[in-house]
C-alpha cells in the first residue's frame, strides 16, 4: 500500500515539475524504480503455485536432476536425483528445500533495484576480524596470502557468490552520476556531451 501511495505521489510530482528539467527526469527514474519494486513484491498468485517468496527471493522448485549444483546456504552438494531444491528467479540463489526457511540474505536483484549504486570509497566496511577472518556469506576461511581481501576481485581472486551476482547484475546499469562525481569531464570528453 505504501509503494502504491509513493507511486501516485511521484506521478503528481512529475506533472508539477517543468517539462524536460533534470528534476523531472530524476522523478521519472524514481517512478520506474518504485514500479519495479512493486512488481517484485507482488506475491505469487494461483498461476504460479511453485513459487515461494523468501526475503524478496522468488524461489521456484527445480525439476532438473543435475548433481553439479551447490547449495548457497549450507555450501554442500545438491543431489538432484534424491533432494528437492529451489532457485531464485532474480539472482539464481540455489538451496535445498530444507535450507529454504534458513535463507538469511535478501535477493541480490532486489538490492540492485533498491540501491543501484557503486561503493566509490575503498574499504568502507568493517575489517575481517569482525567476521572472524571468514567469508561473510559461506563462512569459509579467507586466505590473506594471495592479496588483500579488498583487492581480491580486482586482482583476479575470488569473491563471494553473492558479490559476484551483485556485480553481474550491476555491470550494465547506468548508476554513476558523472555530474556529481566530476562535472568537468563534460568539458573534455565529446562523447559524454552527446550522451548527456
UniProtKB/TrEMBL annotation:
GO terms for molecular function: zinc ion binding. Gene3D superfamilies: 3.30.60.20. Keywords: Metal-binding, Repeat, Zinc, Zinc-finger. It comes from the Eukaryota. Residues 56-107 form the Phorbol-ester/DAG-type domain. The keyword Nuclease does not apply. InterPro entries: C1-like_sf (IPR046349), DEF8 (IPR051366), DEF8_C1 (IPR047983), PKC_DAG/PE (IPR002219). It holds the Pfam family C1_1. PANTHER family: DIFFERENTIALLY EXPRESSED IN FDCP 8 HOMOLOG, PLECKSTRIN HOMOLOGY DOMAIN CONTAINING PROTEIN. Positively regulates lysosome peripheral distribution and ruffled border formation in osteoclasts. Involved in bone resorption. Belongs to the DEF8 family. This is DEFI8 protein.
Amino acid at each position: 500500500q505504501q509503494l502504491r501511495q509513493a507511486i501516485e505521489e511521484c506521478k503528481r510530482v512529475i506533472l508539477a515539475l517543468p517539462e524536460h528539467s533534470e528534476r523531472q527526469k530524476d522523478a521519472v527514474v524514481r517512478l520506474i524504480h518504485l514500479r519495479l519494486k512493486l512488481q517484485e513484491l507482488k506475491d505469487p498468485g494461483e498461476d504460479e503455485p511453485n513459487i515461494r517468496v523468501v526475503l524478496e527471493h522468488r524461489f521456484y522448485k527445480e525439476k532438473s536432476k543435475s548433481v553439479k549444483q551447490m547449495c548457497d546456504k549450507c555450501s554442500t552438494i545438491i543431489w538432484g536425483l534424491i533432494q528437492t531444491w529451489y532457485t531464485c528467479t532474480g539472482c539464481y540463489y540455489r538451496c535445498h528445500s530444507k535450507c529454504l526457511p534458513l535463507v538469511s540474505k535478501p535477493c541480490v536483484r532486489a538490492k540492485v533495484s533498491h540501491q543501484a549504486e557503486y561503493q566509490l570509497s575503498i574499504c568502507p566496511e568493517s575489517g575481517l576480524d569482525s567476521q572472524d577472518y571468514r567469508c561473510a556469506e559461506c563462512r569459509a576461511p579467507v586466505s590473506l596470502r594471495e592479496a588483500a581481501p579488498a583487492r581480491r576481485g580486482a586482482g583476479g581472486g575470488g569473491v563471494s557468490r553473492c558479490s559476484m551476482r551483485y556485480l553481474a547484475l550491476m555491470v550494465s546499469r547506468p548508476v554513476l552520476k558523472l555530474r556529481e562525481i566530476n562535472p568537468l569531464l563534460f568539458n573534455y570528453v565529446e562523447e559524454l556531451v552527446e550522451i548527456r
